[in-house]
Amino acid sequence: MPIQRILVADDEQSITWVLSRALTKQGFGVDIVNDGTEARARVERERYDLALLDIKMPGISGLELLTDFRQKYPDMMVVIMTAESTMKNAVEAMRLGAYDYLTKPFDLDALDAIILKAQNASAASAELKQLKKELRDQYHLDRSIIGQSQPMQEIYKLLGRVAPTDVTVLITGESGTGKELLARAIHFNSPRVGKAFLALNCAAIPGDLLESELFGHEKGAFTGATERKIGKFEQASGGTLFLDEIGDMPLDLQAKLLRVLQEKEITRTGGNSAIAVDVRIVAATNQHLEEQVRERRFREDLYYRLNVVPIHIPPLRERRSDIPLLVDYFIPRACQELNVQTQGCTREAMAMLMQHDWPGNIRELENSLRRAALLSTDALLTPDDFPGLRSVSDTAEVDESLEALIAKKLRCTFAQMDVQELNNLYEMVMHQMERPLIRIILEKTRSNQVRAAEILGINRNTLRKKIQVLGIDVKNI
Predict the structure, then answer these.
(1) Which of 8, 263, 339, 364 is most buried (most C-beta within 10 Å)?
(2) Which residues contact 293 (CB under 8 A, 6 or more apart)?
(3) Is the whole model's pTM more than 0.85, yes or no?
(4) Helix (H, G, I), strand (E, B) or coil at 93
């Protein structure tokens, strides 16, 4: 039973005798005291799940004890008893945190109902605490964010300061570095852990629909709005809203977001009523917002509103010492999810993983390990299990010109193909050349297409068309 021990504090012996007998008969451990001073001393010495306190008794009053107990022993439930059935007493008792209120004389059925309700509440509270513990364990900084390098140690220190607060955080870093994971760690190590954590990718939703996703809309607000929609701000009220790829939000919507952050209220599209929201904002981007501000593609006032506490996650190539830790974390996960028996990497394989630049960062490393673990027939992964990681820097070809390297690769490729099957060869080769070229430049510019087009020497619209034709996923760069 969640409730096992009960303290009864009342100076009327007839009341204490009846309560002691009835509660003991139900299997509770019951202690009786006749004044408030002794009640406080008992609670200081022993643990109780429930206290039944009379308002008026010698020594300390029941309301004074209630205030004291709620501060020092928040897990103990307190029920106030009084012969004075006044609204003032009832209101004051509930205001001070009493679980319930009984007016004398009361029958035992009323007390039984309160205790049953308290038992259910205690069980629910224990279940919630366990859930919170599991969530904290799952997203504890040491488990969800892997790394012991100096840059990661600095991030841990910063997280320890910002997580317990409601301050707005802006996370920057290349794609695949774990920005959403970091945002979740902030939420699950904050007082809002029992509330919702919602993530919204601002680049994945067309601008005309993004406003509805954020703020919701009323029925009939626009064509196709057949019913009311509750937006992410309302859904996350009391919790945390993670706005990923915030740099891709349209300018007109940036102005509305700024107002929400300032006023802490939203208005649904097509609605007239302001709705108060209590949401912590964590935003993220792989773009240079300062550059976007200079180019007037991102509002300066919104940038400063979001950039209260900036956290930059370094790319994996800048913290290579963390790679062995990540390998030790991802391989057991892959084994469990894929039902394989891989035990780890050979020394040669680990050396190759350490040398690779990982343009896709942790996401690329995890996918490479999963693929290798799935396809390998050996207990330990070898360099041969990572064919895609071999780069020109690993061979003597590093001294050759780019043209010579391309010619050698083409000869090797064509030697394995039937000439009769070759069609549209020029288009095929150009596609294979353009795709990595454009991806590399987009990586260097952190997906800034204006700057990428300038570097490539082509029109921005031409670049956009090539991205679409070549099937380049800009969001995952």
Answers:
(1) 8
(2) 299, 300, 303
(3) no
(4) helix
213 or 430: which leads in pLDDT: 213
Pairwise CA distance, residues 79 & 71, whole Å: 15
Distance CA 442, CA 451 (A): 9
CA distance 183 to 93: 40
CATH number for the domain whose boundaries are 317-390? 1.10.8.60
Predicted confidence band of residue 297 (pLDDT cuts 50, 70, 90): very high
Give the whole-angstrom CA distance, residue 42 versus residue 409.
84
Residues 6+ apart with CB under 8 A from 86: none
Q: Measuring CA to CA, which residue among 156, 129, 176, 187 is closest to residue 2?
A: 129
Residue-wise pLDDT for 62-91, tens only, equals 899 999 998 899 888 899 888 765 566 667
Residue boundaries of the structural domains of the chain: 5-132, 139-314, 317-390, 423-476
What sign for the dihedral angle of Cα 7, 12, 14, 15? negative
CATH hierarchy code of domain 5-132: 3.40.50.2300
Q: Tell me what pLDDT residue 104 has.
A: 81
**423-476 in CATH: which number?**
1.10.10.60
CA distance 349 to 327: 11
Task: Indicate the Cα dihedral angle 307, 308, 313, 314, nearest 10°.
Answer: 70
- Tell me if 242 sits within 8 A of 284, measured CB to CB: yes
User: CATH topology of 317-390 equal to that of 423-476?
Assistant: no
CA torsion, ordered 90, 91, 93, 96, to nearest 10 deg: 170
Superfamily per CATH, domain 139-314: P-loop containing nucleotide triphosphate hydrolases (3.40.50.300)
Instruction: Work out whether strand 275-276 and strand 265-266 pair parallel, antiparallel, or are unpaired.
Output: antiparallel
CA dist., res. 75 & res. 48, Å (int) = 9
398 pLDDT band, cuts 50/70/90, is: very low
Give the type of residue at 21: R
